[in-house]
Amino acid sequence: MIVIENAAIVDGALDHPLPGMHVAIEGGRVREVSDRPIRLEGAARLDLRGGTLMPGLVDCHVHVIATLVNVGANALLPDALVAHRAAAIMRGMLHRGFTTVRDLGGATLGLRLAWEEGLFDGPRLVLCGKALSQTGGHGDFRGRHDARPFDFFERRLGSLGRVADGVDAVRRAAREELQAGADYIKVMANGGVASPTDPIAYLQYSEEELRAAVEEARMAQTYVAAHLYTDEAIARALRCGVRSLEHCNLITPETARAAAAAGAMACPTLVTYQALKEEGAALGLPPESVAKVDDVRLAGLRSLEVMRAAGLPMAFGTDLLGGMHRRQSEEFRIRAEVLPAHEVIRSATLDAARLLRMEGRIGCLAPGAHADLIVVAGDPLRDIAVLEHGVTHVMQGGAWKKQPN
Ligand code: ZN
Ligand code: ZN
After folding, report:
1. pLDDT at 154
2. 44 C-alpha to center of ligand 2: Å?
3. Ligand 2 centre distance from Cα of residue 332 (Å)
4. To the nearest 10°, the Cα dihedral for 65, 68, 72, 75?
């Protein structure tokens, strides 16, 4: 039992901190949140003296097995090496304050089982298994002269995706991922930066294939997330019932309004384009990918304004690869260039929980929620950059995972 006293709570719901709050933790959950001191016999106490307390942060777009920026090379690494590196990447995320992450391709149930056994510290992991891609799509990292069958890669832990062509194959792949423990299904529905043979404008998967994936997900009581940049790709994914719209850099107001009306959510990932621009080539991003970065990077901030004006909710995502993971929290500062700070924070708390269908369990400080919380030195509503360097404490499931020395 732990009681945290005299905290100023910031959770993104309000544009100002809620001062003088007290939070009791018991059995890994939040037991009570009050504006009066909480008596709890035998509880350890932490007096924050006005310091900022937040729910643990949620990153809704990561790839924990992306240990190299070159995703094709990553897929050839031995599984044991990828697993240990993924554990280190996840530990870094937790120490930055991310107590839950959604993996958008690559992570398998085995990683979560190892985390549950306490073999390493990391965020709670929501996963899709391998992302589904058509031949030559964003999940296919074979170059033009690489004629190896994709089976060569797809069972490897370091592969972000798998290839499935045609309605029957898409259904089978979706079913296999769900059987293997996927929480939702990811499809690649548009060209991408990190893949070698598909320009950004390419549409990927026929509408029949997209609808098949959506139907399989719905049958399993879950949803489809799709990798998308162009307005046309987003509009057709919406028509097919996709709920989680990843990236969305080139979305128009009309499509953003349609997405909001359909109850979809967007998950922008702007920091990855900034990181790829600044250090991609040095970290091994192939030249054909370097050439595509600005096709999406330059439209990033504008897309946030378009989606906000349309009332399309946005969750926090980063999509970093390899040595760029350290820049995860920079996403807050980038978004705050055009969005109010509390809305940016809400994207990583309340809105993220909504996208992950985990409202009331994560992303909030409320009775019954997981006791996932962070302490920040400063007020992130005034200076959002404190989330980059000022996370002093991290608690997950009621246990301290990071504390000042
Ligand atoms: Zn993507
Ligand atoms: Zn991604």
Report:
1. 81
2. 40
3. 18
4. -40
Burial label for 289, CB within 10 Å (0-12, 13-18, 19+), is buried
Indicate which ligand has the atom closest to the C-alpha of 138: 1
* H or E, element range at 395: strand 391-396
Statement: residue 274 has pLDDT above 90: yes
Report pLDDT for 405: 80
CA of 61 to the centre of ligand 2 (A): 6
The confidence score (pLDDT) of residue 87 equals 98
pTM score: 0.98
Neighbour order of strands in the sheet with 98-103: 57-62, 98-103, 124-126
Cα 175 to averaged position of ligand 1 atoms, centre (Å): 21
18 alpha carbon – ligand 2 mean position (Å): 35
Domains of the chain plus CATH, in order, are 2-56+364-402 (2.30.40.10), 57-328 (3.20.20.140)
Rounded Cα distance, 10 and 97, in Å: 14
Q: What is the mean pLDDT of residues 1-6?
A: 97
* pLDDT band (50, 70, 90) for residue 227: very high
- Ligand minimally distant from the alpha carbon of residue 318: 2
244 CA → ligand 2 middle, Å? 12
Give which of 384, 382, 364 is closest to 374, Cα–Cα: 364
Distance of CA 35 from the midpoint of ligand 1 (Å): 42
CA–centroid distance, residue 246 to ligand 1 (Å)? 6
pLDDT average, residue stretch 238-264 = 98
Q: What angle do CA 368, 373, 376 make, to 5 degrees?
A: 150
List pLDDT tens digits, range 187-205.
999 999 999 999 999 999 9
- Closest by Cα among 297, 270, 341 to 13: 341
* Mean residue pLDDT across the chain: 97
Ligand that lies nearest to the alpha carbon of residue 227, given by its number in the listed order: 1
